[in-house]
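Dear colleague,

Thank you for sharing your sequence with our group. We've completed the structure prediction you requested, and as agreed, I am returning the results in plain text so they can be pasted directly into your records. Please verify that the sequence below matches your submission; if there's any discrepancy, let me know and we will rerun it promptly.
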Amino acid sequence: MDIRSEIELFSDGAAEPNPGAGGWAFVVYEQGVEIHHAFGSETVSTNNRMEMSGVLQGLLWATINAGGKSVSLFSDSQYVVKGCNEWRHSWKRKGWKHGQKEVANIDLWLEMDAALTAFPIELKWIKGHSGIAGNERADELAFAAATVPETNGDYLTAEYRRVMAGD
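Please find the predicted structure tokens below.
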């Protein structure tokens, strides 16, 4: 039997090119209905950093807004899912080292570790671009945030302004 969480959170990130302009997003569903979404961008970033940012922002939202409800957080980034569920525990024990080197993206991993300590949750990997509505929506918002920086991803508002201006 498939037991659904009360809240399903989907996150994604994009960089065009990689590295290049980056965008992150997360979308929140309750009983199959979108109840919230957020997105942001950075002028120069990487795909991994944007994937992490989407998950981190989703976790921060859940910490404040989930209110004791069960939450599932989905990402199509194996780097982020494995990093959160498995690798970070070992990195933390080893002083955030991977071999002799500092873990890449350590600033975000430290924030992610703090968020996952405050709101413990196991992330779930899903295949990207496979028709899962929440993932497709998060992907759309993250890509728009990365490629339309003047609107920070709000492409519908940008299109509305363009149409209303008569362009």
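Summary note from our side: Strands lie at 7-16, 20-30, 33-45, 71-75, 97-98, 101-102, 123-125.

Kind regards,
the structure core
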